[in-house]
Design a protein that fits this description.
This protein is mostly helical and about 110 residues long. The chain has four helices and two strands; from the N terminus they run ααααββ. The protein has a domain of about 60 residues.
Length: about 110
């Protein structure tokens, strides 16, 4: 009976040790950098310094994501046609000369 009690303590200590080892990964599970924190914890967590870095990183607050909304581009309305003061005819908006009489549109 004594063997089973000692084995239970050993298994319990191993489970608690693994829980403490992966504590940074558990905390960082839903964070934006969770993949990097979990990789750091798994690969370098056995060194105490990297484990502390992973723990501190997992405890830091995520920066809020800023979404900048830009208004839709304004559509250029076509300008009004130009009226020739000499002949009274309309010419396209970008015209410098009247299409009918050929005089300068001022």
């Amino acid at each position: 009976m004594e063997v089973f009690g000692g084995m239970f303590v050993i298994v319990l200590l191993c489970v608690l040790g693994l829980a403490v080892y992966f504590l940074p990964s558990f905390i960082a599970w839903n964070k934006r950098n969770s993949g990097a924190i979990i990789a750091l914890n798994i690969l370098l967590g056995w060194t105490f310094i990297a484990w502390v870095v992973a723990l501190v990183w997992s405890l830091t607050a995520d920066q809020p994501t800023v979404v900048l909304m830009q208004p839709p581009p304004q559509q250029m309305l076509p300008s009004a046609p130009m009226l020739c003061s000499v002949c009274g005819q309309y010419s396209p908006a970008a015209s410098r000369f009247c299409q009918s009489c050929g005089r300068s549109i001022a």
